[in-house]
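Morning run. Coffee first, then this:
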Amino acid sequence: MKKILICIDSLRGGGAEKVLTDLLNKIASKYEITLFLIFNDGLHKENLPANIKVKYLVNNRNALLQKNKKVGAILEKAISIMFRNVPPNILYRIFVRNSYEVEIAFLEGKSTKLISGSNQLSKKIAWVHTNLKNHHWTKVLYKNVDEEKKQYRSFNEIVFVSQDSLEGYLEKFGEENNRKLKVIYNPIDELNIKDKLKMSEESYNEFTICSIGRLGKEKGFDRLLRAHAKLISQGLYHNLIILGDGVEKDNLIKLCEELKVTKTVKFLGFKKNPYKYIKNANLFVCSSRTEGYSLVLAEAMIIGLPVLSTACGGTKEILENGKYGMVVENSERGIYQGIQYLMHNREKIEYYKSMSEKRSRDFRIDKSIKQITELL
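And here it is:
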């Protein structure tokens, strides 16, 4: 069996982490796979196939964060400083053991920097899940842009989850050899989603809007909350449910209090089965400032929900610039105006619901899995 090393920061509740977990469940029987985690935590860990070997740099970070957030934050900062200042080949020599035929950095940032230091005669693949031109969150790990660009040059292939992500990379770094760059859309396990929908479902008495994502600034939940509050103040009553956890949670809860919408907004946290909470909602909203490929948007469409999204990155590709869902200006105003229009024109909601069902036929996991296995 071919020996493969896959590196990612953790298996917390983000889109890249879920995609990797689903992917491993599809290909684990074909390869001898070692998964290297920078932080050995995340709820997706329990969904890993039994034959995956797991190695890690830091253990029990979640337990530390629960005990003392300040100490946990210091630990995370120390790891980032180490990755910024220690050369990749030294990091690799210290933390990676054994030899592999394929080495994959499944997320930009620490994982990419670690695998870029490999001196093995392996095939090296980097995955990019965002538009680095618009959301260059990895810059804290590098002394300058040239250093990051140099490390990407050490990979044989660079995979982007959307055309927008690829174009953002080219604008940021340029590339002498474009043949190593390719787009592979995230595999989505439609059967798994439908199986989970059979388990149970939530029902709602009022018009309900739902959204899912890591509670970080880039997901734009603050904008969604302000749009929600404005609509409520104008008599367009509805409930808003948000699934996910993240660093902005406390700030978002405080914002709800300031906007006086605590009774109409529910933060449900990270759920193993989010689909039962969103199945009977009236509308799914992606309020992101930036996206590579919005997994949750595509999953909502598979469920059959009408969707509204800001015009950001891969969401435009999923919706084909408004053909399959409503695309609005990437701003608080855009979100507010889009929801207001749909609440006044319910027939459009039914139209976008039918278009979601039509578009979801294109989200076939087999095509992406075939492209990935050919890459390996």
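The chain has a mean pLDDT of 91. Good start to the day.
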